[in-house]
Amino acid sequence: xRRYVIKRLAQAVxxxxxxxxxxxxxxDYLPGDPVTAMAGAGMDSGQVDPxxxxxxxxxYGFDKPVLVxxxxxxxxxxxxxxxxxxxxxxxxxxxxxxxxxxxLQLTGAALLLAVVLGGGLAVLATYTARRWLRxxxxxxxxxxxxxPTFWVGLLLVETFSFRLRWFPxxxxxxxxxxxxxxxxxxVPTGAQIAQVLAKSLLTALDQAxxxxxxxxxxxxxxxxLRHALRNASLPALTVxxxxxxxxxxxxxxxxxxxxxxxxxxxxxAAVTAQDIPLVQGVVMFGALIFVTTNLxxxxxxxxxxxxxxxxxxxxxxxx
Amino acid sequence: xxxxxxxRSTRWAALTxxxxxxxxxxxCGSGGGDSGSGxxxxxxxxxxxxxxxxxAGCLDPQQVASNETIYSVRQIVDSLTDQDPxxxxxxxxxxxxxxxxxxxxxxxxxLRPDVTFSDGSKLTAQVVKDNFDAVPRLGALGxxxxxxxxxxxxxxxxxxxxxxxxxxxxxxxxxxxxSTHSLGIESSASVRRTPQQKCGDGxxxxxxxxxxxxxxxxxxxxxxxxxxAWGSSRWSKKGEAYLDELVFKVVPEAGVRAGSLxxxxxxxxxxxxxANEAALKGGQVSLQRRANPGVVFGxxxxxxxxxxxxxxxxxxxLYAIDRQQIADTVFPTGTRxxxxxxxxxxxxxxxxxxxxxxDAAKAKPLLDAAGWQAGSxxxxxxxxxxxxxxxxxxxxxxxxQPALELIQQQLKAIGVQVTLKQLQLTQxxxxxxxxxxxxxxxxxxxxxxxxxxxxxxxxxxxxxxIPTSGLDTALTAQAATTDTAKRKQLIGQAQQLIVRNAYYVxxxxxQTQLGVSKRVHDLNFDASSRLQLHDTWIG
Lengths: 319, 539
What we know:
The structure holds two protein chains of two kinds.
Chain A: H1 2-29, H2 34-39, H3 50-59, H4 66-78, H5 92-127, H6 131-146, H7 149-163, H8 176-205, H9 208-215, H10 220-257, H11 263-272, H12 276-304, H13 307-310, H14 314-318
Chain B: H1 11-30, E1 47-52, H2 67-73, E2 81-83, E3 90-92, E4 95-100, E5 106-111, H3 125-138, H4 143-148, E6 152-159, E7 162-167, H5 174-177, H6 188-191, H7 195-201, E8 209-215, E9 219-224, E10 245-250, H8 254-262, E11 268-269, H9 274-280, E12 285-291, E13 294-301, H10 311-320, H11 323-330, H12 360-369, E14 373-374, E15 380-382, E16 385-386, E17 388-393, H13 400-412, E18 417-422, H14 428-434, E19 439-445, H15 451-456, H16 470-479, H17 484-500, E20 504-508, E21 511-517, E22 520-521, E23 524-525, E24 531-532, E25 537-538
Parallel strand pairs in B: 1-10, 1-11, 17-18, 17-19
Antiparallel strand pairs in B: 2-3, 4-5, 5-7, 6-7, 8-9, 9-10, 11-21, 12-21, 13-19, 13-20, 14-15, 15-16, 22-25, 23-24
Helix pairs in contact in B: 1-8, 1-9, 10-12, 11-13, 16-17
């Protein structure tokens, strides 16, 4: 067990370092730089003094050799310091810390909704004996996966905010403002959970142990929930781990449509302004959340299925 | 108008249209609703909620250049002067009066005696000096402000309330510059802070509103300054503003802004595009529009490129473009095709409409005469080389791509092959500086015709690589005269020279379009087509 944990931890650190390096290289490769972006913010002027640009670039350390910059930033990043945003001058970490609660609220609510809706759909679809109903329910997840998130968002705003006026169309205020964005984000996520869970539930129901349980006289619900669901939830759990990354990415669109302040909006703004320290911070933050979630899931596996420690390679097969 | 293929292939546009169309249906169904009390007499009090599309993340008017942020931060500061949007005339604000030396190098302002900043400090000549001395230190962070003061020799306090600004060279544009948000006056304590601090924490001004709360990317709240009594001479209300509070909400999605206005969740919205107009017509909303003054949207040509060096080729491009079609197809209703290099709202604008009528029949012989022969694929060639033009553009407006795709078709009709090259926002200036480009799409907002000198004088940046000519003489002379009639004549001459030589191909005037609830009154554009909210009231 200890070797398993250490190995997973090492992997997590490796992923973080790779995310850092790749994002650094990509940002360095991209044309333009944040300093000209700041100066060019007055699109109307066009007349920027190259000397001033050079002075600013020096102030922010963008004139140093790439390797020095890389080592510099990495050294500070390890200590949790991502420097200051070029656009606003605020420390990157506090910008992210301010935006985090809103995004956690949004993604947390969306994940909860997704698990409840997606899980419920999968269980119902596999439980029902009516063929047409099963077919109908099973056709919903592919639909949910394929419709663009912003379309769902605009449709929900149109119906429940502009027409029925039940919920506000934008803003971060309270539970009411959370409903539509969380639902929007939950649609593709829940659909994916439903797809995976329904498939593995169907597989599980064909297994020998289900027959055994049935022979022992267990009821249909009991077999479905206690035996099949428990075994089928493992692949679904892996998917949830991956979906966390998707939820964070999805928050860019959802936070834009619903004008919510959060990591997604910070990301969009940082990318537009080519605010390199902030983009780097966002990437690392996202990677950290993703890695942590997956680490937790990896560590939960053995509790669900003790065989995993013995053959931890199995995870790849499941995913 | 012929039906053109929808060039905006993005799903966004289609969906926005879908959403807003259904909003329109709802609006038709809901009928009257709550209309204003309708007394017609201005009332004090109330909150105006204004949805804007973006947040520049900076609260300092001297640094901000994004229209949508200027709407809000402009209300915090007053300026030395104001500009009448109808006449272009400069009128008193913080300065009661002023003198300009006959060679336009020295500007003396006499300040009102009763002005205080919201931190309690008084407006004195020293405060103005502190402001103008600090502006050059903004450097690249405050390009607009810094540009207005470039060439300043000294700012001197000549009396407790008299301040004199002296330039090394004649600089007639400076008087108008003092009316802009970029040279809005901040308290001395505020000026002493670093540009970054002013950006992040805001500034102390003497304006009719003060900053109350700011959440980046979310909202900006301003409260009425009680006791305010030094408004611009052109405002209709004396003393304090009508509104108690202004709330600017950042709502990036255009369809959501339109729906929020139509459903009464906000009172006004910015950046209404063509796709959202239908949703907002009728009912409780009106559309307000005004062309931005300054250099119109068009193609800045690199006049040093072999093909473009030939005036016949440049003029062929000028004639080939159907401005009316572009304005009607792509831009919001009411957008005017360019009738000069300057928009019609710019002071000293001269109509050159006859020079800018589209006529492909005139364009083709010009290219023939220049030696460009039509090839089998319709594209002209000369000495085995194709007549191609790469237009560089940046995605700073939704209208850019469809407008350019239309231009591409129109130029193809006379045998010019156009390639569109999208640049990152940050790549444009370096590209123009390098001189390695054919053409660039853009515009410049400025309510003073001196913008022609900044853009076309060969002594300055000269992005378009124009050869020295009589144009320089006219541009330099207009900056040196305080005689309004003479300046108008020189500016007229400069416009003619630019258009007739086709150094730049004017296409359409940029129009600012707002959606405003009918409950809101006197929400007025200033001379730069931005907003003045002191006189605004709800009722």
